[in-house]
Design goal:
This protein is mainly beta. It is built from one helix and five strands, in the order E-E-E-H-E-E. The protein is 6% helix and 58% strand. Strands 1-2-3-5-4 form a five-stranded mixed beta barrel. It is globular.
């Protein structure tokens, strides 16, 4: 299930705390092209992510949405 979110906090070992559109805060790691291309994420960036089917509190960030800074 793909959903949009906003990065709230960067944590150790490439983990990020993100806030979903629904207001729920989950823990996510970087996946795919973001990881291969060493793209940097900072708090305030909008991202698209997939939630884990077995644990709704975890997910994988799949891409950074352009024009993404939100203050």
């Amino acid at each position: 299930m793909k959903i949009q979110a906003v990065v709230v906090e960067e944590r150790p070992r490439s983990l990020f705390a993100v806030r979903l559109v629904t207001g729920q805060q989950v823990l996510a790691h970087i996946g795919g092209a973001l990881e291969r291309n060493y793209m940097r994420l900072v708090p305030g960036d909008r991202v698209e992510m997939e939630l884990a089917p077995d644990d709704p509190g975890r997910g994988r960030i799949t891409r950074k949405v352009t024009g993404s800074r939100m203050y």
